Amino acid sequence: MPKLWNDTIEAHRATVRDAILNAAAALVTEHGLTGVTMSRLAEATGIGRATLYKYFPDVEAVLHAWHERQVTQHLTHLAAIRDQPGTPMDRLTAALNAYAGMTRHRHDAAITTALHRAAHVTAAHQQLTTLIEDLITDAVTAGHVRADVPAAELAGYCLHALTASSSLDSEAAVCRLVTVTVTGLRAAV
Q: Mind listing the pLDDT tens digit of every residue in the chain (189 residues)?
């Protein structure tokens, strides 16, 4: 087949896959995890069930693909923050703020329990930890962050502390939590 034809088919498949994942997200929001069915997905996307099964074998596969896409988008966003211009401390603080915001908008407990057992979550958590650890290392080198505690331990401290964002009810509360976390990182003057 010509390259243009292959590219067109792949683009179409990607569009259909995204439509299915977007519909899954909407159904989870509206009905919860148990409200997502292949019939509802087919109806929401306007895709026949037979076609839907060509993309995903079952609802669980759809939900895991949707979650993996979300996690990948979060990591991509955090990597973009890491790579932006600014001081190491500015970039670290921006990444921690973004992570806290992502944590605050987590799903309910049932969704988290069901989706966070997947293998991609372990790999993503390692990527996240490494990203924060690298930002901390840069900030230590610049003299902004304490050097008496290993960067890996400080990264763990930050990530664990900021998971408390999931229970906070306002953006202001999240900002305060990030400020407290960053203050704990600062080098003694």
A: 456 665 788 888 999 999 999 999 999 888 888 889 999 999 999 999 999 999 999 998 998 899 889 889 999 999 999 999 999 999 999 999 999 998 876 655 556 565 656 677 788 889 999 999 999 999 999 999 999 999 999 999 999 999 998 888 889 999 999 999 999 999 876
* Nearest C-alpha neighbor of 95 from the set 112, 74, 69: 74
CATH code where residue 28 lies: 1.10.10.60
Q: How far apart are CA 64 and CA 154, in angstroms?
A: 30
Angstrom distance (rounded) from CA 7 to CA 146: 50
Among 40, 57, 74, give the residue marking a domain's end. Answer: 57
